[in-house]
Design brief:
Layout (H helix, E strand, L loop, with lengths): L5 E4 L17 H14 L3 E4 L1 E2 L5 E2 L2 H13 L5 E4 L10 H4 L9 E5 L3 E3 L2 E3 L3 H13 L3 E6 L2 H12 L7 E7 L9 H9 L5 E7 L4 H11 L2 E4 L6 E3 L2 E2 L4 H13 L7 H8 L5
Parallel strand pairs: 1-2, 1-12, 2-5, 5-6, 6-9, 9-10, 10-11, 11-12
Antiparallel strand pairs: 3-4, 7-8, 13-14
Helix pairs in contact: 1-2, 1-8
Bound molecules: zinc ion.
């Protein structure tokens, strides 16, 4: 098995201070927690940024600020910038803004789904343009799949040369409107992957930890963090992202899966260090 790539999604587009006082909102807070998570074993930090009111934005200056603080403080963690935006409320062009910063990784949501009470639209034309833009700026797409059909969407883009190997898939399970967070669903999705793929899984709420444990056992990779789940255990809030990372790292250690360093992830995924 490859070494375990542990990602942390610190903030998300929706997790609010009303839900948990521990979610990092400002660029400084996000960078602080990213650095703390690196210390606990995370190799990739997946970030969304917020405006002064805590509302999600794709403001490149805010994304750049997070990356800048992380680098200034000597932390080698890979920064993965979201292109998710705010479903339905932002233009495609706004959502793609962080790609121009040439992050090492950016998210690539490989299709449209109902998402909670809303609709998360990722049209074919948006995906074509996003794939081209990422290629132009040397960004590795994290191909987020919320359901099995999105793997097929990705394969079509692969066939047309718009996505290039090695492929980095993130299965996002348990979203209301997407595929369930179950072992059989995960196995099914893994079985649909094209050659030269690496995969990771994250899951919403209480499914987060069991899905991370399955990934450890199956040879996949794992994402944790407050974007997907704010609890450490039943009714107990996680006191930031680092405790969630530390727990997955401990379990991986017990299972004899070493953690990949950021440079080892760059090597495996073919990412050039910025
Ligand atoms: Zn995200």
């Amino acid at each position: 098995m490859d070494k375990l790539i542990l990602s942390v999604a610190t903030t998300g587009s929706r997790t609010s201070r009303e839900q948990t006082p521990h979610v990092p909102i400002t660029p400084e807070e996000i960078a602080d927690q990213a650095i703390a998570c690196y210390a606990e074993g995370a190799a990739i930090v997946h970030i969304h940024v917020r405006d002064d009111n805590g509302v999600v934005t794709c403001d490149p200056a805010r994304y750049a600020r997070v990356a800048e603080i992380v680098r200034e403080r000597g932390c080698p963690i890979i920064v993965n910038m979201s292109t998710g935006g705010n479903a339905g409320l932002m233009s495609d062009e706004d959502r793609m803004a962080p790609v121009r910063l040439s992050p090492e990784i950016a998210s690539f949501d490989a299709g449209s789904i109902n998402f909670g009470d809303g609709v998360f639209v990722n049209s074919p034309s948006f995906l074509n343009t996003l794939a081209e833009r990422m290629d132009e700026f040397g960004v590795k797409p994290e191909i987020e799949c919320f359901d099995t059909g999105m793997i097929e969407n990705a394969k079509r883009l692969i066939d047309r040369g718009l996505l290039k190997p090695p492929f980095w898939f993130q299965f996002v399970l348990g979203v209301r409107g997407g595929a369930p967070a179950s072992a059989s669903q995960l196995v099914h999705m893994v079985n649909q992957l094209p050659p030269e793929s690496h995969w990771s899984v994250c899951a919403i709420g209480r499914a987060q930890l069991p899905m991370n444990m399955l990934a450890i056992a199956m040879g996949g990779h794992a994402r944790t963090g407050l974007e997907d789940n704010i609890y450490y255990s039943y009714r107990v809030l996680a006191e930031g992202n680092a405790p969630l990372v530390a727990r997955v790292a401990r379990i991986a250690h017990e299972a004899d899966r070493e953690l990949a360093t950021p440079d080892e992830v760059r090597e495996l995924l073919g990412i050039e260090r910025r």
